[in-house]
Amino acid sequence: PAFVSLSAYHIGGNEQKHATMGNRVKGRVKKKSIKAASHSGMGSKRKLSRMGKKQKKDHSGIDATFIGRSACLRKLQFSLKDFRRLCILKGIYPREPRGRAPGNKKGQVYYHIKDVRAIAHEPVLYKFREFSAFMKKVRRAAGRNEKDEAARMENYAPTYTLHHLVRERYPRFVDAISDVDDALTLVYLFAALPSERRIKSRITNKAKSLAAAWGAYCATTSSITKSFVSVKGAYFEANIQGSTVRWVVPHAFTQNMPEDVDYRVMLTFFEFYETLLGFVL
Fold it and tell me: In 10 A of CB 108, how many CB atoms?
C-alpha cells in the first residue's frame, strides 16, 4: 500500500506540472511582455509588427546623411592633406545641411555620405596610400645614411593619372569647355609666377606651354570677342564652339609671393587643370 500511494503521489505531481505549464496556469490570460510599456494595450511582438523596428541613433535622417570631416578621416584611414587633395581632384566640396545641424553641432564642416563613399572607391586613393608607404621606405633609407639606396628608390615612386577623373566630371566636351574659365586663369597665373618655394620650374614651364597653345588656338580661329585692361590684368572673352569663355591674364610685372597663401592647394588645382586643358586642346 505504501508503494501504491507513492506512485499516486508522483502521478498527481505530473498532472499539476502540466496544468501550470511552467510559470503560467492553464486557462489564464498570458501576461504581457516586460518589453512593452505598462500603459500599452499591445505586446512587444504586436507593436513590432504594427509600428516597425525602432531606429537606432545616427542610422537615419540628417544625422546619417551628413558626416563630419574628422569622421571622414577615421572612415577613410588617411591624412587630412591627402583628403583635401582628393576632394579637389574629385570635385567634392563641403555641404551645409538644411535646417538643424547633425547632432546639433554648429560650425562644423560636413560632407555628404555619398561623396565619402565615392572617395572610398577611388583608384587615386590607393595610389596615395602606396606613395605614403613608399616615402616611409625612402625616409628609412635616408635615416640609415644610405643615400645611394634612397636615390635609387626614387626612380620607382608610384605614379597615377587623372584622365578618368576628367572623363567622370566632364562626360561631354561642352561640359569641359563651360568649366575651363578657372583653369585658364590659374594657368596664366602660374605662367607669370617665379620658380621658387613649392613652385618648381617644371610647373611654370608647363603653364607657359599651355597658355601659348591656348593663345595660338584663339588667334588662329579668331575666337576672341571682347577684351579690356584693368588693374588685375587683361580680361578676355572668347566664343569656343558656342560657349562663352572668360579668363584673366596678369600683367607682365614681377609677381610678389605672399606668405599667407596655401600654395599646396593651388598646385593641386593646377594638377587637375593641366590634365583638363590637355583634353580640351
Answer: 13
Using 50, 70 and 90 to split pLDDT, how confident is the model at 214? very high
The pLDDT, as a whole number, for residue 44 is: 72
Q: For residue 68, which of 126, 115, 125 has the smallest C-alpha distance?
A: 115
* Max avg pLDDT among 37-51, 191-205, 210-224: 210-224
Looking at residue 116, its amino acid is V
pTM beyond 0.70: yes
Q: How many CB atoms lie within 10 A of CB 68?
A: 17
156: Cβ–Cβ under 8 A, 6 or more apart, which residues? 134
Q: Which three cell numbers stand for residue 256?
A: 610678389
Q: Lay out the sheet containing 224-229: strands in order across.
A: 224-229, 233-240, 243-250
Strands 233-240 and 243-250: antiparallel
Asked if residue 244 lies in contact with residue 251, where contact means CB atoms within 8 angstroms, the answer is no
User: How far, in Å, are 63, 66, 230 from residue 94 at the CA level?
Assistant: 15, 10, 33
Residue 123 has pLDDT above 80, yes or no: yes
User: In whole angstroms, what is the distance from residue 123 CA to residue 132 CA?
Assistant: 15
Distance of alpha carbon 269 from alpha carbon 186, whole angstroms:
8
Question: Do 69 and 105 meet the contact criterion of CB atoms below 8 Å apart?
Answer: no
Distance CA 230, CA 131 (A): 44
Supply 43's cell numbers.
Answer: 505586446
Closest-CA residue to 269 (of 76, 84, 131, 115): 84
136-176: pLDDT as tens digits: 988 888 888 888 888 888 888 888 999 999 999 999 999 99
